Amino acid sequence: MSIKDVWGRWRDLTRFRLACEMALSSYRKSFMELPIRDVANTKIFDERGPTRFECGYDDFVDALTDETYLYKLLLTAHASLVEEFGRTIVADLLIRGIPRSAFGGLDKASPIHEAAEQYIMRCNVGSWGGAILNVVGRDWTIVPGGVGNVVHAFVARNIISHGAKAYNQTAINRLNGVAPGKFVFVSGTALALDRETFQQHLSRLRNFARVICGVPSKVTVAP
Question: What is the Cα–Cα distance from 107 to 109, expressed in whole angstroms?
Answer without folding.
Answer: 6
